[in-house]
Amino acid sequence: MKLSHRITHITGGGSDGWDVFYKARRMVADGVPVTELTIGEHDIRTSPAILEAMHTAATGGHTGYAMVPGTHDLRKTVAARIAARTGVPTTADNILITPGGQAALFAAHMAVCDPGDMAVYIDPYYATYPGTIRGAGAVPKAIITSPDTAFQPTSPALAEATKGATSLLVNTPNNPTGVVYSQDTLQAIADTCDAHDLWLISDEVYDTQVWEGRHISPRSLPGMAERTLVVGSMSKSHAMTGSRVGWICGPADTIAQIINLATHTTYGVPGFIQDAANFALHQGDAVEEDVAAPFRRRRALTMQALAGQNVVRAVPAQGAMYVMLDLRATWMSGEAFANALLDAEHIAVMPGESFGKAAAGHVRVAMTIADNQYVDAIGRLIAFASARAA
């Protein structure tokens, strides 16, 4: 029997660049100790207080069908959070609660792209972006950025790549690079969207993890609220990765249409999980700062470890739970380096090539293990790279 072209071509064919990750997991399964610095999974778990709120909601009976758009309380809380942080008036009607940020990314592209439409994204990119676009029936097109511009897209590149496009997907703070887009970059993005009449899909799941500068939501720029869909999530801000609760924020009439899509796909998020998310958001900024603190600390430890040598260089690590390391001085690809490091040192990192073409010769390090283990792993990585460069 034949399967649909949509489902068989989601990954675009060939390797998805995650071979090193799977290899490391096989080693672990075989009993080989591996220091894993691959995926963005917190080394702390969801707060016991949040889990208690989830338990109370579940045992209290909130286990039936929840409202598909999300509970009114959670939608209202998310809207108030966004309004307070961006200055853009936002109500519950601007919010759809989704099963995590990934479902929000898919729904956003389904909402604005017809089959065959061109949907643009920035390279390096989070691994699911091209497949999400293909799954929605659109045609992905990457804007290749450069280490020389800290992987921020330039106005000429934006203008050229978006001719004939329907949507533009951006991510700041950025996974995988850790870069926070500047005011100038965001204005160039806004100007491009205006000039080419594009929908902007803004992935802001790392908005609570900013180490330098400040996060600016492009929805807050003049004229952008009516053409921007913001993707948010509880996963990174509150260490609730497995709870699968996120949202889309956008124009009320657009959100109403995406709710119709959710009715025919996900049919909402469990009510007891939404109650826990609502509880978590009401705990205030201090909880989010506590979740982010280990990554802020390890980012500083990374910079200390890199000082005094010039073989391994860091891309400006301004936000998120990763640091992108430039290893081009070793004359190795990111994939070759990651494989060699795993074989020799049993340290697993993600090749830059896993996230597109722009980060070739780089690796992404997830700062997701205890400080002492992390410092040891970074030191060994630097020593390994220095030996290869020599």
From TrEMBL:
Reaction(s) catalysed (UniProt annotation): L-aspartate + 2-oxoglutarate = oxaloacetate + L-glutamate
GO biological process: amino acid metabolic process
Cofactor section: pyridoxal 5'-phosphate
InterPro entries, A to Z: Aminotransferase_I/II_large, AspAT/PAT-like, NHTrfase_class1_PyrdxlP-BS, PyrdxlP-dep_Trfase, PyrdxlP-dep_Trfase_major
GO MF annotation: an example: pyridoxal phosphate binding
Keyword Secreted: no
CDD domains with a match to the protein in the record: AAT_like
Start and end residues of each Aminotransferase class I/classII large domain: 34-375
EC number(s) from the headed UniProt entry: 2.6.1.-
PANTHER family: ASPARTATE AMINOTRANSFERASE (PTHR46383:SF1)
Name of the protein: Aminotransferase
Organism expressing this protein natively: Yoonia maricola
Lineage: Bacteria, Pseudomonadati, Pseudomonadota, Alphaproteobacteria, Rhodobacterales
